[in-house]
Structures are given as structure tokens and as C-alpha cells.
Write the C-alpha cells for this entry.
Amino acid sequence: MPVQFLIQFAGLARTTVSHASLMVGALPVLLAAGSAIFVRERVTPGRWVALFASMIGAALIAFGASTGEAGAKASVAGDLLVALSLITAVVWILISQRLMRSGRYSPVNASAYVITIGALMLAVWVIGTEGFPSVHLSLRTWVCVIASGLLATTVTTYLWNWGLARVPASQAGVFLNLEPVVGAILGVALLHDVLGSYAILGGVLVIGAAVFVAAK
């Protein structure tokens, strides 16, 4: 978990919300591939075609940013870091599912262990590399941090693990399809991101591949 977030936030600092969200659209396809390789879940030839289509889409999103078509703040390096964080996310998901299916860990227990141990490891890394973080933050900032930690991490991890214990990992990606769509829309509507033609085409390929995988 800490490795994923460190890489993902490093990427977010170098790209736009819309670009990052569209890159995350590749996660369901990567999850299907990981499930086939490591968990031996059956993946049809059509899903493998979707995997390659998704990778092409991710490449279009990343390299489209270098021309400036997707906004001045987007970059290839940022998009690739977000893509790399998806691989660690697949590892996290498959390990969590294996823990829960062993019968020794419930979704609550698995979530608690992952979040607690991950937070401790992250604290060691942050303090060792950058020192103690500042606690002199505004009330608004504290509220945002607490809400993000509680709703976007703790509750989300528990609900995800609860569902993951009941469905195959390759099928769980259907719900991940909402993130790239909502993220890209919010990035454009609220943060005034600009998506160029390559980014839009890449996003269509990524989301289309994810929907195809989830529907099969």
C-alpha cells in the first residue's frame, strides 16, 4: 500500500487529474491479466485483445501529454508513474483476496492489517527521507485530510475487500470503470483540465477495454 501511494502521488504531482483518471482505466484489464497469471482465473482471448487495446490507449494518453495537447501540467513522466502504481495495486488486490479466501482473515481484519502496517511503513519512509511533517495546518486542510483518510482510504478499503471476498478479482474491475470516467469529468469541470485528441482517443480505448473485460 505505501509503495502504491508513494508512486501514485509522485505521478499526480506531475500530471493532471483527468490524465491520471484515464490511466487508472487500465487497472481492470491489468487485474484480469494478473488474475490469469497468478490466480489461474480463466481469461478469454477477447480479454487479452482488450488488454493490448488498453495498453495502446494508456500510451496515447501519456505521449499525447508531451505535445501539450492535454494541458500544460500533464507530462509523460507523471502518466507513467500513475501507470506503474497500477501494477502495485494489482499485487495488493490479489494478496488481499488470497488472505481473505484462506478463511483466517475477514474483510475487516484484512483492511485493518493493510492500513495499519502500511501507515507505519509510510511513516518510517516519510520521516527518514523528509523529516516530521508539519502539523501547523489550517482547519480546512485538517478536515480534508481526515475526510480523505476516513472515506477515501479506510471505508473504501473495507468495502472493496468485502466485495473482493465474494467475487473473482478479474470481475471486480467492473466497479473500477467508474473512476476514470468520473475523475476525467471532474478534472475538466472543476479543475479546468483540457483533454486533447490523443488523450480522448486513448481514454476511449482504455475505458472501452475495461468495460469489455467487465462484461465478459
Observations:
- The two ends are 29 Å apart (CA to CA).
- Residues 111 and 158 are 5 Å apart (CA to CA).
